[in-house]
Amino acid sequence: MATGMFIIEIIPLVHIPRNQVQVLSYFHGEMLKVGAVVEIDFNHRKIRGVAVVSEPLKSRKLDFKKSVDFELKNISKVISAEPMVSERQLTIANWLSNYYYAPLGICLKTILPPFWNKKGYKNETPKNTLSVKQTFLMVAENIAGKYFMEKYASEKPVYISSGLKNKEYFDVWNKVAAGESKLIIGTRIGLFLPFSNLSKMIVDDGSNEAYKSDMTPRYNAVDLARFVANVHNSEVISSDVFPRIEFPKSASSVVVRKSPVDRSVVNMISEIKAGNFSIFSRDLQDEFLKFKIENLKLILYIPRRGHANFILCQHCGEALKCPNCNVSLVLHRQPTTNSEQLICHHCGYSGALPKSCSVCKSYQLKPFGIGIERVESEIKKYYQRANLKMPTLFRLDSDSVKDERDEENIINDFLGAESAILLATQMIFSHKHRLANNLQIKPVIGIITADSLVNIPDYKTEESLFRQLTLLAGFGKRLIIQTHDPENPAIKCFAGGDVSGFIKSELKNREELSYPPFSRFIKISFKHFDNFKAKREIAIVAEKLKQVLRGDRSRFDIMGPSPAFISKEKNFYIWSLILRDKQMLELPLDSGAAEIKTRNELLRVVPGGRGWIIDIDPRTAI
Ligand SMILES: [Zn+2]
Ligand SMILES: [Zn+2]
Fold it and tell me: Do 321 and 301 reside in the same domain of the chain?
């Protein structure tokens, strides 16, 4: 073994803001293999790091990558001279770090399993030609994973998710590394498994937003799947009811299944004009009455929790807001005791309903908007008034269920019942496979107000509405959409069964505005408890970006800054801006791509650190 003095480049497994050096140089008396694990001194702390390059000191030019201290330090201790991190893991971490502009050490930590570096941990083995061909089926949520585990039980699949205990995880890890498992089903964490011979990756429900991580690195697992598949020389197949419009490729490669469901759109303004003041249209009431003569299943979809979405003062027009967040408080009503409470769905604040408006002292406080609790009480009233026996009523929302098992029981009981009504929020979509493949009586589906789905001022709102309607259509035989705005393009196209028409018109709008897929968004946000400070800091960043760009808008331009849609959350004020990239339209599968480098160079003006978030391909622009 060569001796002397060596410079070892190390990835410290800690959070270093992305605009600082991510790989640091240390001295060591001997060479170290790529992937070896060491202990180093970093900002007066002992931490772990992974060696990536070793070079003799004498061959090295004086461009050491130093930590905050000027002097280069020695490695404190070699923990494992044998590689504990594979080339593949380093490749994936590098891509995550470069594409998502996230700290390299954190990206590497994200992909290493919890038992990494502990006794018995086996690194991935090189591609094993004797291994069976492996398929990874990626699901957005555990409930979908469970469905596929049952469906493909005969193939003896293994399951991976972050909910596994260390020992179970370890077991799956080793089976996959040894090439024993043919079919692997799991959530996005499965992308980091040491596949020995991955031949196919199937992404279920690719437009599901649960694939986007809320934590650093804020990666979208569907995009990461494309990169990981590329690393393994395998292919990705997407299976979805609706394509992700934001990426040009995905829009064309997905086969959209059109369901032959009967769709009616009811204009709720016409209902009022005709003297029907109920929250249920006459069409829906006709369905309620059918229970009298036949066995029936009915699903009412209500996107909002609680009783009323907000309380408005009718005198001054002020809505009751959470003291910690800039959002309306939601009225919740206990069905048994009828006691009322105002709850903030963002920070969990709860309080009693005040007698009068805090601004003008008026007593004219009125609840508005329809939540699932309101629908529950209205439906009970309806059957009482009609003097009819009410069918069994099930409710599925986060206020009424404890856990996933509870949810599944409700879905099973509803599907197993002879006649029943199910009230559900978005939670229903976790059970889409069960509901879409239900072979018993196909339900009628009522959407109480489609409008509440389009009230959010984001460019993706219509896409999201169309997606939800498409999913719901897959569950039943008839869809009744109640709305105050039947001219809404998403509702209109959906009613006509015109999927390609909708995609075409969305793409046309987005092309005119240069929105994704005709550009890529980078959302830069800063939050601070002082609104003035939050606003000033983001304005400084906007100014610096403009300085660097020097009026050249050919690739990048800036939208904002502006307060976030929820401008205050948990006492923090949030301001953001969108940096728009009009050049990098396809997902780059090379971490070293020049277009990523240029972009990251530009992002260096963002200070990073506490309060800052840089989100590549954010879920929303607001
Ligand atoms: Zn008032
Ligand atoms: Zn709040």
Answer: no
Residues whose CB is under 5 A from ligand 1 (ion)?
313, 315-316, 318, 357, 359-360, 362
Q: Which residues pair with 48 in a beta bridge?
A: 39
Q: Which ligand is nearest to the CA of 311?
A: 1
Distance CA 184, CA 186 (A): 7
Ligand nearest to the CA of 572: 2
CA of 16 to the centre of ligand 2 (A): 31
541 and 592 share one domain: yes
For the cut 80, the answer to whether the pLDDT of residue 16 exceeds it is yes
Q: Are 127 and 38 in contact (CB under 8 A)?
A: no
- The domain containing residue 43 runs over which residues? 3-84
Please report, for the domain that includes residue 524, its CATH number. 3.30.70.600
Which stretch of DSSP H or E encloses residue 222? helix 221-231
pLDDT score of 478 = 94
Nearest 5°: the CA angle 579, 582, 588 is: 95
- Separation of CA 351 and ligand 1 centre (Å): 18
Pairwise CA distance, residues 458 & 479, whole Å: 26
Kindly state the tokens that stand for 211.
Answer: 């694939």
| Six-digit token string for 263 | 């769709």
Q: Is the same domain home to 463 and 563?
A: no
**Tens-digit pLDDT profile for residues 399-435:** 999 999 999 999 999 999 999 999 999 999 999 999 9
Residues 159, 272, single domain; the answer is no
Q: Is the pTM of this model over 0.85?
A: yes
Burial of 440 (0-12, 13-18, 19+ CB in 10 A): exposed
Number of neighbours of residue 390 by Cβ within 10 angstroms? 14
